Amino acid sequence: MAKDRPTIADVAARAGVSKGSVSFALNGRPGLAQATVDRILAAADELGWRPSNRARSLSVSKAFALGLVLTRDPAVLTSDPFFSAFIAGVESVLSRGGQALVLQVVTDGEDEVAGYRRLARDGRVDGVFLSDLRHDDPRIDLLSELGLPAVTLNRPVGASPFPAVCLDDRPGTVEVVEHLLQLGHRRIAHVAGPPTFVHATARADAFVATLADAGLEPAGLEISDFTAAGGIEATRKLLALEQRPTAIVYANDRMAIAGLGAAQQAGLTVPDDLSIAGFDDSELAEFVHPGLTTVRADPYAFGEAAATTLNQLIDGSGDVADVELPPARLVVRRSTARLEES
Amino acid sequence: MAKDRPTIADVAARAGVSKGSVSFALNGRPGLAQATVDRILAAADELGWRPSNRARSLSVSKAFALGLVLTRDPAVLTSDPFFSAFIAGVESVLSRGGQALVLQVVTDGEDEVAGYRRLARDGRVDGVFLSDLRHDDPRIDLLSELGLPAVTLNRPVGASPFPAVCLDDRPGTVEVVEHLLQLGHRRIAHVAGPPTFVHATARADAFVATLADAGLEPAGLEISDFTAAGGIEATRKLLALEQRPTAIVYANDRMAIAGLGAAQQAGLTVPDDLSIAGFDDSELAEFVHPGLTTVRADPYAFGEAAATTLNQLIDGSGDVADVELPPARLVVRRSTARLEES
DNA sequence: GTGATCGATTAAACCGGTTTAAAAGCTCAA
DNA sequence: TTGAGCTTTTAAACCGGTTTAATCGATCAC
């Protein structure tokens, strides 16, 4: 009943030409008479012909798909608000072009390497996105070795053979700190992400540098892990300091929201006793109490740009330039306030 | 340099047999002498041969991939904690078997239909997961029409030609309500998800039924939308009631956490003035202040079971039975407390 | 010794496209 | 009239597997 879809041979028969001519016509190759091309296109249209990308895959050795490997600890049901929007952005590019996105969620570093190897070995994808860049990221060498094209989300620290699509974290961080300084804060602490991650150190460095520009030192610098649990712990440590900070800047919203809870549990009122700022502008940020001052990027646009760039690299006409996206910007809500003289 | 990978012809040459024999040996087909099979397998092993699933795809008309289409509003950078763990579970099954997961994140109903059509038309996947079931879900007919095998996550309300993998929401909801009743609450309200969703009504129905069993009526029933913003609004309405509820049960954590913020903003202390419970046990649930009483499922196992079942359906030997997973269970934290007589 | 039977193996077709090399048709010059 | 030089078209090989039908060789009955 589900009548077989027409193949290129059916189109050829209907147009009264050979398979080869049909292929030429469909791919816009020169060398065919215009009249013939028109006839073939009409025939294809009438039959409702669609290319089989299985067949195309085999003959042109392409997968017509891009890959994303996310390394996440499933015990912590972590789910970045970043990625659903990012993926939607990627999708918007792939759906034109008839490409697909292959996703892998793996739980540790070993699986991660295995995941990329598998994508390459099975020829599942024509290229991959490299997210959550780490210092001396082993994936860069791995992908070079595998010969798998890639685009890095933000710029790795060392040399990289891959184009980078960048959304700079630092201006947002600078804005947060300057915002707090303007509110009169002088004892400002930072809860950073794991220093293995480039974006964690970038934010921490921007934090320290901005304070330094104002002639200040961090009132505390806790290295944490981007999780809510880590945020709680780091916050407790900071609040236990002799000179308690009057403001804490977190490297992501998850830690900030957890830290907000920790501060409240410790009997502090936010923002009266303590100002708090996050990073990401996750959905909840707006709706916790008090609303979280944070930094907002545009992950959807990030996804679009990354997909476009990766496709350019794969279609491979020459070098592909890095792309610079508008940086994340400060969003002020109620969790930060003018320092009360006490 | 990147020497071409060995093909089945190379293996055949090395083992001194024909291509066909190699194919038989590798697929464990009977009819070959054991000695020959051993020789072929050894040759394949020595050459490091791996099947090309592009070629296999073409000749057996299978994609060796499963699909998941998520409909999410990217403006609300919603990201279910459910799905990253679910996907990791799916992945754990697919990685054995050499399959891949194709993910689409779409932003509205039209794109959703187009997404499934595209997956089917392009032969991208051999089957799909049907999540976030709706009443009279149009996707069931759509997929039947497309002839795309599917597994539903939980059971649709009407007839369905597809096997269902079920993780019952209701026992958890019943437990929440009973927990609150035991704490002495009598005015308990519910913030439900959109009634189009089966799981939203399932939770709401279980809520109402459990109260009814105790001879009570809901102290309020707000229909919301699973978002934080919706949770805020619903909470405000409930708190404005003449007879304010002493406890609110939310259909998910996101609304509950937002509701928590709203209650605090309204000057209430949770749980002293108001008990609050969520659903999902998202990461933040444990770390907001006070820690959120909620209901926890095992989305990783859900993913495993769904993938296994879908594969059984695709490999298609006979009917596939529905799968019943252990239901979600109550997790008690600090956001619910004994009702203080006032 | 001949033919039937059966197990092991192979050649070739096939999946649905792309691509190459050759052929066919046409124009034009010598 | 021949053929050189184009443009247009086609046949066939190819991508790397699977599958079918045929073949080969050995065993067995008669």
Compile the SSE list and pairings.
Two copies of one chain form a homodimer.
Chain A: H1 8-15, H2 19-26, H3 34-47, H4 53-60, E1 65-71, H5 81-95, E2 100-106, H6 109-121, E3 127-130, H7 138-146, E4 150-153, E5 164-167, H8 170-182, E6 188-192, H9 198-213, E7 220-223, H10 228-239, E8 247-250, H11 253-265, E9 275-277, E10 294-296, H12 299-315, E11 323-325, E12 329-331
Parallel strand pairs in A: 1-2, 1-3, 3-4, 4-5, 5-11, 6-7, 6-8, 8-9
Antiparallel strand pairs in A: 10-12
The structure holds a DNA duplex (30 and 30 nucleotides).
What are the defining features of this structure?
homodimer; 342 residues; alpha/beta; four-stranded parallel sheet; elongated; DNA-binding
Question: Can you walk me through this structure?
Answer:
Two copies of one chain form a homodimer. In chain A, α5 crosses α12 and α8 packs parallel to α9 (198-213). In chain A, β6 (188-192), α9 (198-213) and β7 form a beta-alpha-beta unit. Chain A is elongated, with a radius of gyration of 26 Å. The first copy, chain A, contains twelve helices and twelve strands. Helices cover 43% and strands 15% of the residues of chain A. Chain A is an alpha/beta fold. At the A-B interface, α4, α5, β2, α6 and α10 of A face α4, α5, β2, α6 and α10 of B. Chain A binds a DNA duplex (30 and 30 nucleotides) through α2 and α4.
